[in-house]
Every structure is written in structure tokens, then in C-alpha cells.
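Worked example 2:
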Amino acid sequence: MTAYVILGRLTQKAIENAEEMVERDGRAERAILAAGGQLLARYYTWGRYDFILIVDFPSEEALARVMMEINRLGALSTETMTALLPEQVYRAARGA
């Protein structure tokens, strides 16, 4: 499994329908699980991004499928980054 950090911003539509957040979060989590992924953490934040998700997926294709499904709702925009453990970076550095 590969870990990813997803930074997200809520759209005006999502803010205007804030009472639907619990339902939207549930749909997103079900989509992640259905694709073989895991939701490791979800945080709502103040600042440049409105939320952060930390997820594990078995493949980039599984991640892409879920992100397309979630973004199709029109309630948010996201930026996704691959997350590496320190040991992974250390091994890469030793092999460089």
C-alpha cells in the first residue's frame, strides 16, 4: 500500500450546504474502502486548506478512481501528494 496526503478546499457549494458534510464524508470514506484503500486520518483545518486526508491505496489507479468520484460531486478541489516514510527516503538516499 502507498500512503497519500490529500489537501482539500471546500467549494462555495459545499460551504452553503455545510449540513451535508457528515453525509459527504461518509460517501468519501465508503468510496475509499470500496477501492481497497484505508482512511488513516481526516482533519479539518483553518487556513489555505479546509481539510487534510491521509489515506493508503493499493495502487495509483485505485486512488485515481476514488479521487474522480469524490471530485465529481463538485463540493471540493484537491491536491494529492505521495507520502513516504523516513525509512523509504533513507533507503533511496543510500542507493543514490
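The mean pLDDT is 92. The first strand starts at residue 2 and ends at 10.
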